[in-house]
Amino acid sequence: MLVRDFMITQVYTIRPFNTVKELVTLLKTNRIGGVPVVDEKGNLLGMVSDGDVLRYLAPKRLGIAGLVFVGEDGELDDVMKEKLDTPVKEIMTKRNLLTVSPDDDFETTIHFLSKHQYKKLPVVNGAGRVVGVLSRGDIIENISKRVTSG
Predict the structure, then answer these.
(1) Per-residue confidence of the chain (150 residues) as pLDDT tens digits?
(2) Could you give the CA distance from residue 91 to residue 13 in angstroms, rounded to a whole number?
(3) CB under 8 A, 24+ apart: contacts of 137-141
(4) Residue 81 — φ and ψ, nearest 5°?
(5) How far lies 12's CA from each of 75, 89, 138, 150, in Å?
(6) In terms of Cα–Cα distance, which of 9, 15, 72 is closest to 39?
(7) 49 within 8 A of 119, measured Cβ to Cβ
(8) 3-class secondary-structure state, position 54
(9) Candidates 3.10.580.10, 3.30.750.200, 3.90.1280.20, 3.30.360.10; correct CATH number of 3-149?
(10) How far apart are CA 67 and CA 87, in angstroms?
(11) Backbone dihedral angles phi then psi of residue 14, each to the nearest 5 degrees
(12) CA 21, 22, 28: angle at the middle one, nearest 5?
């Protein structure tokens, strides 16, 4: 069994200059936890997840034992609004990106997802373009279908 047999081909992506606010809307609207960041040709530049957003938006802890939250340059709401206007490229993961090919086998993919504890892997073709996405949920669903139909 190959990655192409169970990858999602309707891939939601975002561009590096889109804002964190646009990213949050994309994630919420499509009920997904992360997306590939691509250039105008669909080439993979990075990955960004709901976890990246939360880590970026979390208030900075200052004060005694980290119990006092202090806004960076004003009120928390102002800081939050400013952060939501940040380009995605500022918070995306761009190093050590792990990808799979549509022709990779099932066992290799399961190994990558479990070893590196990734929730989602971009599937890229030989030209470096994103052609699909594979998540832990997709693999579990695929296994479940095989178990219940067999």
Answers:
(1) 888 988 899 999 999 999 999 999 999 999 999 999 999 999 999 999 999 999 998 876 665 555 545 554 455 677 778 899 999 999 999 988 889 999 999 788 888 788 877 788 999 999 999 999 988 887 788 778 778 776
(2) 15
(3) 138/6, 138/7, 138/8, 139/6, 139/106, 139/109, 139/110, 139/113, 141/6
(4) -60, -40
(5) 33, 16, 15, 32
(6) 15
(7) yes
(8) helix
(9) 3.10.580.10
(10) 30
(11) -140, 155
(12) 90
Cβ atoms 92, 84 nearer than 8 A: no
**In the block, which residue shows the tokens 């699909």?**
132
First to last CA, the chain: 16
